[in-house]
Write a structure and sequence with these properties.
Elements: H1 8-15, E1 22-25, H2 32-40, E2 44-49, H3 52-64, E3 69-73, H4 79-84, E4 91-97, H5 102-105, H6 131-137, H7 140-151, H8 156-169, H9 175-185, H10 197-207, H11 210-224, E5 225-235, H12 238-251, E6 274-276, H13 286-291, E7 299-305
Parallel strand pairs: 1-2, 1-4, 2-3, 4-5
Antiparallel strand pairs: 5-7, 6-7
Helix pairs in contact: 7-8, 7-10, 8-9, 11-12
């Protein structure tokens, strides 16, 4: 399947690129968002991706927009230092697509999917421990905790026990091997979702420290946005969306006030620096879901930095 950027019209509506602006695509992937943003306005897009293959693919898009697409290899959680090295210290808009790109899912050699057998890798970058390292070395209890915490897998202990028993006979090296071990001990539920789905998600998240990366990226984004700047984030599962929702509600001052019995409630709360652009999470429309079933779990949230009050009387 070719790469289809998820919720692109909604992204452009909330990001609202304008001529002369400096914008960031923090998860470049297949470049769909970056290309659409550059088509929409005479702006500059800084694009970050930790995947060397994504940066290499971006050369063709950069050639279409001479000088306007700047590719940076690295983690979006490091956006402050990556941009500072290019003398960029403020942005008018940031978009983060927290899902895997179709290029990663559809490449068996990357080990992200169990639909085709391949090495059990799952690294977005080309360094660090692989998923095979985790399933073959983690103690059973830690492996179970990983599957439960990052995959919300209720049968994590049963799966971890089966993995440890299998690896005692021979190392688990491929996606097909791991998926087969999981399917042998987890029944298919009524949703039709493959029994290995949640475990693969959990391992991928841990291999790439995805939740920590999201927290670092959101914090960095809030500091980089200029007054009026917009942040748009698309999440693909509840763990991601929970972090985004909490961050945006806190930034917009939507957290509950302290109890009147709490001494902290006597202190005046600081005025919020951001305003929500979305009421709850927006979801893909029916037309998009028919054209791109992979968008089914997407959830979009957005906020904007309020105008500066530094010069108000």
């Amino acid at each position: 399947m070719s790469h289809l950027p998820v919720m692109l019209p909604e992204i452009l509506r909330h990001l609202a690129p304008r001529d002369g602006e400096q914008l960031l695509d923090g998860t470049f992937g297949g470049g769909g968002y970056s290309a659409a943003i550059l088509d929409a306005a005479a702006c500059t897009v800084w694009a970050i991706d930790r995947d060397p293959a994504a940066i290499a693919r971006g050369a063709a898009i950069a050639a279409r927009f001479p000088g306007r697409l700047q590719l940076l290899q690295g983690c979006f959680g490091d956006m402050v230092s990556l941009l500072a090295a290019r003398d960029v210290h403020a942005l008018d808009g940031i978009v983060l697509d927290l899902g895997l790109s179709s290029f990663q899912i559809d490449a068996p050699e990357r080990g992200f999917s169990f639909r085709s057998d391949g090495p059990l890798d799952m690294r977005m970058a080309a360094s660090g421990p692989t998923a095979a390292d985790l399933v073959n070395t983690l103690p059973e209890a830690e492996l179970a905790d990983t599957l439960y915490q990052f995959g919300e897998e209720r049968l994590s202990r049963r799966i971890a026990k089966a993995i440890v028993a299998a690896r005692a006979a021979a190392p688990i090296a491929t996606t097909g091997q791991l998926a087969g071990i999981i399917r042998a001990v987890v029944p298919t539920d009524r949703s039709g979702i493959d029994p290995a789905t949640r475990s693969f998600q959990a391992l991928r998240i841990r291999v790439n420290d995805e939740l920590g990366e999201i927290e670092r990226g959101l914090s960095a984004a809030s500091g980089l946005l200029a007054p009026g700047g917009r942040l748009v984030v698309v999440a693909f599962h509840s763990l991601e969306d929970r972090l985004v929702k909490r961050f945006m509600q806190d930034a917009a001052g939507r957290t509950p006030a302290p109890s009147r019995h709490d001494p902290g409630g006597l202190h005046r709360r600081a005025a919020p620096r951001f305003a929500l652009l979305t009421r709850g999470a927006e979801r893909p429309g029916d037309d998009e879901l028919r054209a791109n079933p992979r968008a089914r779990s997407a959830r979009l949230r957005a906020l904007a930095r309020l105008p500066s009050r530094d010069h108000e009387p």
